[in-house]
Amino acid sequence: MPANTTEIERRLWAAADNLRANSKLRSHEYSTPVLGLIFLAYADYRFTAAQPTLTAASRRSGTTKDDYQAAGVLYVPDNARYSYLLNLPEGTNLGQAVNDAMRAIEDDNEDLRGVLPKLYNRLDNTILASLLKAFNFSEIMHDLEGDAFGKIYEYFLGKFARDEGGKGGEFYTPTSLVKLMVEIMEPFHGRIYDPACGSGGMFVQSARFIEEHRRNPTTEISVYGQEKTAETVKLARMNLAVHGLSGDIRQANTFYEDPHTIKGKFDFALANPPFNVSGVDKERIGTDPRLPFGIPKSDNANYLWMQYIHSSLNDRGRAGVVMANSASDARGTEQDIRQKLIESGSVDIMLATSSNLFYTVTLPATVWFFDKRKNGTPREDQVLFIDARKIYTQITRAIRELSDEQVEFIANIANLYRGEEPEFIHSTREQFEETFPDLTYRDVPGLCKIATRSEIAAQSWSLNPGRYVGVTARAADDFDFTVRLSELNEELETLTAEAHKLELRISENVQTLMGEVRREIVDEAALA
């Protein structure tokens, strides 16, 4: 019977967590060596698994590095083999040995040059030996099924993002939300772009979607990403390698640089850019062909991101972008840009999500979907609004996720709206048919509604799903006082904690000001 992946993830996390308590690394630094060791173990596992087949195929000429790379397997030289590191004599400087192993892999695999971590000489030999043993996947992989490595890597990315708070949100978007975006966009084939790619989760889930539909992602899609932080670029390239993918990931600040020359180039674009960024130098932006609808006067980059995504699509392109709720109703020049986007006919679906889906912010978000292939069809004049704020699975008091069944349910609403056949891989057919009899789309109060552009214009071009979807007719019957009270109590605790932090900051600032005033009084008295 296959082992429980979740249990193994927890066991490995407990082993890795020792590093935080017993190393010289700061808390936000220990993710890098752990993810590096998972990568090393993965590379060795794939290399070992491919050896018999490749050796048999090239018995006469001998197996070369090119044979492995042609088979989509990283070449692992002898001094980077996991078994070699595990069996080094006692007293060997393990940190140096692991650093050398990382360099050796980079030397033989050009795509990874400069990407792998080499800070293992900062770890104590005992701790590193313990970690190497814990991540010896050759002992546990035979008990696992499917893409176990990928799942374990994602589990660690998610845990680190959760632990690192705000900084973690820069590189990680919750997997269930990315799954939902991918299910709605259906990126079966073509070029995929992410201008704020973080750890590359959008690409990984796109590849998984293709595999679930029995196709080969390495031949179906090409991925292009950019990210302004060098360390995050490395994280993304390692994540792609762990999942057997390659891609063109560049370090660049999207506001001022366009390394992929994106305009009209991509079949799909997915992004979770940082919300409400201020301080963008608009003079430096100048005239940018990626911003055809203008530059907003407000000090907020939401509508810059939106245009980067929109203008990157070709005539058949689809996109999904996670955005702050406030962008749906923003006024002034942001409203003017939103009106132009709607009038272009490519705004396709607006989806309101539950709060607490993100590790770094408690507020709900809205996912915007563009679809340029609907231009010239009856849907050009329509936008589907989905209010999924009440659809979630509570994981902890502060964290919610979307289950596979919930993702399937929501994605099938989009399928019906587009006139496509719904898919029922996760046994949601009965529940779905209760809401959509005969598998035919209909507006459902509190859940979904199709609005025309004239209806949207009458709402001052607002794209807030709540303005259109309304409330469920059976709200009173469905009201669960205990659940609602728990939600309100949770919200109150969050607000109270934030208020306490503000109170402390105000108190500290007042004390600082009082001190400066006292010093000025003393100085003036001394001068007198």
UniProtKB/TrEMBL annotation:
Keywords: Methyltransferase, Restriction system, S-adenosyl-L-methionine, Transferase
One Pfam family named in its UniProt record: N6_Mtase
EC code(s) of this entry: 2.1.1.72
Biological processes annotated in GO: methylation
Domain DNA methylase adenine-specific, chain residue ranges per copy: 146-473
Molecular functions (GO terms): methyltransferase activity
Transmembrane segment boundaries: none
CDD domains: AdoMet_MTases (cd02440)
Domain N6 adenine-specific DNA methyltransferase N-terminal span(s) in chain numbering: 8-134
Catalytic activity: a 2'-deoxyadenosine in DNA + S-adenosyl-L-methionine = an N(6)-methyl-2'-deoxyadenosine in DNA + S-adenosyl-L-homocysteine + H(+)
InterPro entries in alphabetical order: D12N6_MeTrfase_N, DNA_methylase_A-5, DNA_methylase_N6_adenine_CS, SAM-dependent_MTases_sf, T1MK-like_N_sf, Type-I_RE_MTase_Subunit
Family: Belongs to the N(4)/N(6)-methyltransferase family.
Name recorded for this polypeptide: site-specific DNA-methyltransferase (adenine-specific)
